[in-house]
Amino acid sequence: MDVAIVGVGLHPFGRYEGKSALQMGADAVREALADAGADWRDVQCAFAGSMEITNPEAIVGLLGLTGIPAHAVLNGCATGNTSLTMAAQSIASGEHDLAIAIGLDKHPRGAFAADPSVSGLPGWYGEAGMFLTTHFFGMKITRYMHDHGVSAATLAKVAAKNFRNGAANPRAWRRKPISEAEILGSTVVNHPLTQFMYCSPDEGAAAVLLCRADQAHKYTDKPVYLRASALRSRRLGAFELLSPSLPLESVPSPTVDASRAAYEQAGIGPEDVHVAQLQDTDAGSEVIHMAENGFCKDGEQEVWLAEGRTEIGGLLPVNTDGGLIANGEPVGASGLRQIYEIVTQLRGRAGARQVLGNPKVGYAHLYGAPGTAAVAILST
Fold first, then answer.
1. CA geometry: angle 322, 108, 243, nearest 5 deg
2. In the predicted model, what is the mean pLDDT of the chain?
3. What is the structure's pLDDT at 307?
4. Which of 55, 187, 210, 300 is the most exposed place for a label (fewest CB within 10 A)?
5. Which of 360, 358, 357, 356 is nearest to 378 (CA)?
6. DSSP H helical segments within 37-130, as ranges?
7. What was the pLDDT predicted at 101?
């Protein structure tokens, strides 16, 4: 059974002292319901994802205790995709007609750092003082730049683009354009990545309402269909997120595996995608993910960025809402923010950041610890 997205909601990402993640999540759900003209009493099941909140499904206490099955979800940075997929599968199986995926989080300030054992990784990663996300991404892009001739100037172009897109997005956290020179000249956090090339953990929520495709027009005249959703974990030899060293013999990233599976499900190729959201934990990640998702070959990012191909008016607009760099990353909600943006673009409602040419196919990609990737493909 086909599945349609009929409503989306977003609590803007940022910092909201005194407001709980559950309250932000409830606001996002109410917006998604209003978008579809639906009522909370119509929702038949919910999947709520969070990294920091022990029981995100407790959001039903703020929305109405209707007795529906409400599930907690956590799958690292792929949590949003997992919530979306589980909600879609509950419809595709025929179990429910209307389901909602919710993401919410409220992270403390600073880089993610924890006991490696919680991610299934060796304890000595932490004992060596190298269990930091900033370190990992700096090491990964250093190797990639060496192997494929990517310059630091290209990393700055990625970050500057995302800040520009954020400035055009009234709901983005970072709304000030930052020049490439300022980005390159800012404090080096982990070489070659500077302060303005990284995203930051923050707070926020998003919600996506889904239904049977044959019922979509009950809720909206502009349904968006979920054509594919694929998640893959790492294979032996894949670059492990948060590892302090590189494998001597490597296999493709889980992003490559998830991307190929999603293209196969949707029956399309990368040349058919009109707008994309790619995990940009840092500027280097977006560069790497352009190739891993099949949009260009390794090293071609130099030409793509120089020619503006990933700008809003370019061949393949990437991270049109500013991505993680301009919005931050509340882990449980970040993947659903991507879906919110893709749906907004495919409906032609993105205002100043609207992609030209009536886009019909959107692509959303996530990548996170300790080596998990997810891809969703949507179309009108």
1. 75
2. 95
3. 98
4. 187
5. 360
6. 60-63, 79-92, 124-127
7. 98
Are 57 and 70 spatial neighbours (Cβ–Cβ below 8 Å)?
yes
Spatial separation of the C-alpha atoms in residues 257 and 72, rounded to whole Å: 26
Assess contact for 156 and 180: CB atoms under 8 A: yes
Burial class (CB in 10 A: 0-12, 13-18, 19+), 74: middle
- pLDDT score at 136: 84
Give how far Cα 127 sits from Cα of 79, 124, 244, Å.
28, 5, 11
DSSP label at 57?
A: G
Q: Which amino acid is present at 235?
A: R
pLDDT digits (tens, 9 = 90+) for 100-131: 999 999 999 877 767 777 777 788 877 777 77
pLDDT tens string 73-90:
999 899 999 999 999 999
pLDDT tens per residue across span 52-69 = 999 999 999 999 999 999
User: SS3 for 123?
Assistant: coil
State the pLDDT at residue 318: 98
Give the list of residues 6+ apart from residue 146 with CB closer than 8 angstroms, or none. Answer: none
- Rounded CA separation 238/246 (Å): 9
Beta strands 70-73 and 45-49: pairing type? parallel
